[in-house]
């Protein structure tokens, strides 16, 4: 969904004409010209499953987040929700806030993405008691 | 004789390395700043402080939101009790406590990481300074290095030279003398 939004909002930019971003089955992003391409839904599902692991450990959370942020995309709210819940299971509030900061940074010039993500995550944020960086005042240096 | 030659060279190397290290440590190296990293510098007793790269390190990077270890690993008692409180519902934490928890784990916020450094002013200032210094060197050269001014470049000599060329009819068809009006005694 975000990939579509990104493509539509950047009009005339050369990035529009590139082919759909390729998400492969492996963590290392390789582009195959043959073989089955992972769909957006499969990608999302894979990552949601990753963060939903009940006994996820801190390393896996860090690795998952850092890898996810390394991709050329803004993660879907459902992936982020799973990640935030993983932070809750690990009793790590700071990482949860950091994840929100990272999402805002990943949106880059597309300023409409972050408010949308927050809006989608609002139920989870209130349920878990996760403040947004804006609420803590750390969104400004 | 050999040792004497080596001494000033070593001092020069020290100066430049130290100066670069000083500039780097002042401005920070790109997006990489860490509490544990100290520049590998000269040591008076031969002891240098260097980061232990064999343990997980902390760093603030935009593309690595969750670094390998939390920023503060030695917690005071107050911090420890806060960490205990973190295990309960987060809704019962005050805003200050939430902020304190963030600062325990992280050094700079994303906003602080992205803050403009003003490094460009140093760079531009440095450029102008060295251009200015070069100007002084060139000026000194002009007075102390250049040989005496050749008299063939004086206006008087040049005028006599031009007159001679015209008298000789240098390039009279399409070139030099062709441009001189011999009747009127002036350039065409």
UniProtKB/TrEMBL annotation, chain A:
Keywords associated with the record: Acetylation, Heme, Iron, Membrane, Metal-binding, Mitochondrion, Mitochondrion inner membrane, Phosphoprotein, Transit peptide, Ubl conjugation
Location of the protein in the cell: Mitochondrion inner membrane
GO CC terms, sorted: mitochondrial inner membrane; respiratory chain complex IV
Record GO biological process: mitochondrial electron transport, cytochrome c to oxygen
Record membrane topology: Peripheral membrane protein
One Gene Ontology term of the molecular function aspect: metal ion binding
Predominant subcellular localization, coarse grouping: mitochondrion
Record has Transit peptide as a keyword: yes
Listed pathway(s): Energy metabolism; oxidative phosphorylation
CDD domains: Cyt_c_Oxidase_Va
Family: Belongs to the cytochrome c oxidase subunit 5A family.
Function: Component of the cytochrome c oxidase, the last enzyme in the mitochondrial electron transport chain which drives oxidative phosphorylation. The respiratory chain contains 3 multisubunit complexes succinate dehydrogenase (complex II, CII), ubiquinol-cytochrome c oxidoreductase (cytochrome b-c1 complex, complex III, CIII) and cytochrome c oxidase (complex IV, CIV), that cooperate to transfer electrons derived from NADH and succinate to molecular oxygen, creating an electrochemical gradient over the inner membrane that drives transmembrane transport and the ATP synthase.
PANTHER family the UniProt entry points to: CYTOCHROME C OXIDASE POLYPEPTIDE, CYTOCHROME C OXIDASE SUBUNIT 5A, MITOCHONDRIAL
Subunit structure of this chain's protein: Component of the cytochrome c oxidase (complex IV, CIV), a multisubunit enzyme composed of a catalytic core of 3 subunits and several supernumerary subunits. The complex exists as a monomer or a dimer and forms supercomplexes (SCs) in the inner mitochondrial membrane with ubiquinol-cytochrome c oxidoreductase (cytochrome b-c1 complex, complex III, CIII).
Protein name per Swiss-Prot or TrEMBL: Cytochrome c oxidase subunit 5A, mitochondrial
Organism: Carassius auratus
UniProtKB/TrEMBL annotation, chain B:
Pfam families in alphabetical order: COX4
Protein's pathway: Energy metabolism; oxidative phosphorylation
Entry keywords, A to Z: Membrane, Mitochondrion, Mitochondrion inner membrane, Transmembrane, Transmembrane helix
Keyword Membrane among record annotations: yes
Subcellular location: Mitochondrion inner membrane
One GO term describing the cellular component: respiratory chain complex IV
Any single GO BP term: mitochondrial electron transport, cytochrome c to oxygen
Membrane topology of the entry: Single-pass membrane protein
Transmembrane segments: 123-143
Coiled coil start-end: none
UniProt similarity note: Belongs to the cytochrome c oxidase IV family.
PANTHER family listed in its UniProt record: CYTOCHROME C OXIDASE SUBUNIT 4, CYTOCHROME C OXIDASE SUBUNIT IV
Quaternary structure note: Component of the cytochrome c oxidase (complex IV, CIV), a multisubunit enzyme composed of 14 subunits. The complex is composed of a catalytic core of 3 subunits MT-CO1, MT-CO2 and MT-CO3, encoded in the mitochondrial DNA, and 11 supernumerary subunits COX4I, COX5A, COX5B, COX6A, COX6B, COX6C, COX7A, COX7B, COX7C, COX8 and NDUFA4, which are encoded in the nuclear genome.
Function: Component of the cytochrome c oxidase, the last enzyme in the mitochondrial electron transport chain which drives oxidative phosphorylation.
Protein name: Cytochrome c oxidase subunit 4
Organism whose genome encodes this protein: Carassius auratus
Source organism phylogeny: Eukaryota, Metazoa, Chordata, Craniata, Vertebrata
């Amino acid at each position: 969904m975000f990939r579509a939004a990104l493509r539509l909002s950047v009009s005339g930019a050369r990035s529009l004409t590139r082919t759909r971003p390729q998400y492969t089955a492996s963590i290392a992003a390789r582009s195959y010209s043959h073989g089955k391409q992972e769909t957006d839904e499969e990608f999302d599902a894979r990552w949601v499953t990753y963060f939903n692991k009940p006994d996820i450990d801190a390393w896996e959370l860090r690795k998952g987040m850092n890898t996810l942020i390394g991709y050329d995309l803004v993660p879907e709210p459902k992936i982020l929700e799973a990640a935030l819940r993983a932070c809750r299971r690990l009793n790590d509030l700071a990482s949860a806030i950091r994840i929100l900061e990272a999402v805002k940074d990943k949106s880059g010039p597309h300023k409409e993405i972050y408010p949308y993500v927050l809006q989608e995550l609002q139920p989870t944020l209130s349920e878990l008691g996760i403040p947004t960086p804006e609420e803590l005042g750390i969104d400004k240096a | 004789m050999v040792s004497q030659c080596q001494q000033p060279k070593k001092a020069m190397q020290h100066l430049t390395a130290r100066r670069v290290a000083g500039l780097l440590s002042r401005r920070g190296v790109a997006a990489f700043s860490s509490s544990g990293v100290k520049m590998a510098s000269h040591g008076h007793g031969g002891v240098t402080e260097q980061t232990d790269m064999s343990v997980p390190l902390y760093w603030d990077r935009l593309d690595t939101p969750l670094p390998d270890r939390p920023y503060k690993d030695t917690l005071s008692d107050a911090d420890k009790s806060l960490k205990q409180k973190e295990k309960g519902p987060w809704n019962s934490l005050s805003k200050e406590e939430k902020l304190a928890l963030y600062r325990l784990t992280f050094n700079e916020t994303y906003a602080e990481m992205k803050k403009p450094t003003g490094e460009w002013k140093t760079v531009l200032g440095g450029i102008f300074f060295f251009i200015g210094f070069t100007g002084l060197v060139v000026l000194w050269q002009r007075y102390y290095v250049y040989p005496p001014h050749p008299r063939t470049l004086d206006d008087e000599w040049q005028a006599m030279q031009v007159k001679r060329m015209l008298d000789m009819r240098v390039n009279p068809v399409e070139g030099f003398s062709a441009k001189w009006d011999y009747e009127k005694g002036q350039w065409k």
